[in-house]
Amino acid sequence: MKNFCLGKLFVLIVLLVVATVNSVFAAQQPYIPSYDDRYEEDLKQANSNKDYFIEPEDDLNYANYHYIGANQAERYPRFFTEYIWQEQTILGMLSTGARGLIISLYDWSVAWSTILRAGVSVVCSHPMDESTVFRKNGKPLYQTLHYEMNRIFNFLKSHPKAVITVFFNDTADIAKIVRDMREIISKNNYNPILKPSDWSAAQQKGEWPTLGWMRSNNKRLLLFTQIYNNHTDFTWPVKQYFWKNNYGSIDEKVLCSEERLSLTESNQKNRSLVSFSNHGNTSTSPGARNSTLCLDYDLVKQLTQRCQKRKFARGKLFNAYWVNHLIGATHTLTQEKRKTAFDYANELNIVPNQVKKQ
Asked: How far apart are CA 322 and CA 73, in angstroms?
């Protein structure tokens, strides 16, 4: 009888564990809207990429978190035929190890038909000249905030240690962006966003949580606006929290100087984060347009340490390091058996034997 009772108890425990695991797994299922016909195809491509980023330990503070970011992450071949800055979809960039994304948002709700007249925030750059339109059942579909954020949410669901930072180049109406984010959260039944109301210490003292706190509370996605200067329910203004450098050159005198707006912005007291761009979108410098060079370990380490000595961002090293052609340049460097900016970020993320603030 005793063995029988123990056996029943064991079965009951197993059933409870299975039910719990299934419940958690069900809550993390990807949301794939009907219009995202290419999701499985893109996910397969993304999963074939090598991941170059090592997720840091829990006790690393977000203010000391170093990661590689994709500049103009929306500009990949499916939607753009000119000035393509990234080789694969955002899923591909994240799977390669990117933990930062700069995404341009435009509002076409006045001039465009169908879904755009509803005021949907559109993820695009110069769409009339450069983007292509794909169709489902004869209806035109566009690269929207819903489209890309659903994919980012799905990545976070399947990568519980990932902490992602997004910069919105927010030309769209901020009220529509906030409304769209509410809808995206509702449709996914999932909310990984660290909102301004979740962590008041950042606003009051420029202090941030540890990655461990962010992971255990599922607050692993931070959304910053580059144009809108106030906080919203979901977004933080870049200017109040990040130092930003000039870009378009690999000349350290240019690269290590503050971006003019960053330097003159009056509210600098809470800045404990550093955005470091090293790409040549508007550059006449051949070196800055060479994405392989800009991702090379030796150059990145040399330039950023020299900028530290020049007291850029008050001597603090980068948190986000933004580049173009992230996947292509990384593949080229590894094929040549050279180290990359990912290797440097991984080294910087090793926590020293000291207590990090939560």
From this structure: 10
Among the CATH numbers 3.30.70.100, 3.20.20.190, 3.90.190.20, 3.40.30.10, which is that of 50-348?
Answer: 3.20.20.190
Q: How far is CA 162 from CA 32, 63, 71, 298, in A?
A: 20, 15, 19, 26
The pTM of the full predicted model, rounded to 2 decimals, is 0.86
Band of pLDDT at residue 288, cut at 50, 70 and 90: low
Taking the CA atoms of 147, 151, 157 and 162 in sequence, report the sign of the dihedral they define.
negative
pLDDT at 100: 98
Q: Using CA atoms, how far apart are residues 119 and 135, in angstroms rounded to an integer?
A: 19
DSSP strands (E only) in 96-244:
100-107, 121-123, 134-136, 139-141, 164-170, 221-225, 235-237, 242-244
Residues 6+ apart with CB under 8 A from 244: 238, 258, 259, 261, 262, 275, 277
Quick one: pLDDT at residue 356? 41
Q: Check pLDDT > 70 for residue 240.
A: yes
Cα–Cα distance, 210 to 357 (Å, whole number): 7
Q: What is the pLDDT of residues 319-347, one digit of tens each?
A: 999 999 999 999 999 999 999 999 999 99
pLDDT of residue 252: 81
Q: How far is CA 146 from CA 35, 45, 180, 253, in A?
A: 10, 21, 7, 40
Please measure the distance between the N-terminal and C-terminal CA atoms of the chain and give it in whole angstroms. Answer: 52
The continuous run of DSSP H or E covering 115 comes out as: none
Q: What share of the chain is helix, strand, coil (3-state, %, to 5)?
A: 45, 15, 40
| Residues contacting residue 334 through CB under 8 Å, at least 6 positions apart | 50, 52, 340
Distance between CA 307 and CA 279 in Å, rounded?
16
* CA–CA dist 204, 201 (Å, integer): 5
User: Parallel, antiparallel, or unpaired for β 121-123 and 100-107?
Assistant: antiparallel
Q: Span 183-192, mean pLDDT?
A: 96
Q: Which two tokens stand for residue 246?
A: 């000039």
